[in-house]
């Protein structure tokens, strides 16, 4: 697309061809690519709606299976629906707490903070459910390398941004100092939860597929994967914070004296 736009257009006065090509990429080509990946992600979700529905039906049917029947089907035994519901409620409560802590730093009124928290978590959970189904289906069918994570990220920010913008406009957040930054951060934070769901679901499905090939018990794998998520969440955050305090990240340094390094 860059050769097409550079041939059909003309650079501004004093603009080099390299600068003109970069402008075409930034202003046109990159947006076209993002739109293509976003449409591909939406189309993938639509095409995978039937497998998702079938999977839910199978889960409900397996919940009605007696323990005696499941005992002879070790490789078909999953965590019970009740256990899954308990895990979901615990994770939902954790997301509410994390999102509330994130929003409360802004010092907004309690009702606005709760509204942002509930809206962000519900959006992340609903999108996460659909996206996890699409990603895991592709990971199980082909592999994690074929999972549409890039499109999922773009789709997540495209959906999260209008929601947070609407809330900020209704509460007059944009009139406050730093309101635009807060709206941007809220949309990115919501998208980060969606991406985390997609990435973890990819990894888990890859493990479950491998276990299926070697005859493992899905229930035991699922318990181990849950423990892995818990341990990872307790370890990764302190390590990243340690690296941030020691070296900083590009464009975000912890101390002013690190600018010269």
Short description:
This protein has 261 residues and is mainly α. The chain has helices at residues 2-8, 17-47, 49-63, 67-71, 81-104, 110-141, 149-171, 179-214, 218-247.
3D structure, described in words:
By secondary structure, the protein is mostly helical. It has 2 domains: 33-63 and 79-216, no CATH class; 217-251. It contains 9 helices and no strands. It has helices at 2-8, 17-47, 49-63, 67-71, 81-104, 110-141, 149-171, 179-214, 218-247. Helix 5 (81-104) packs across helix 6 (110-141) and helix 8 (179-214) runs antiparallel to helix 9 (218-247). The protein is globular, with a radius of gyration of 23 Å.
The global form is: globular
* Average pLDDT, all residues: 84
Order of helices and strands: HHHHHHHHH
Strand content: under 5%
Number of domains: 2
> What is the number of strand segments?
0
Helix content: over 70%
Structural class label: mainly alpha
| Spatial extent as radius of gyration | 23 Å
Helical region count?
A: 9
Low-confidence region ranges: none
CA distance, first residue to last residue: 38 Å
| Largest sheet report | none
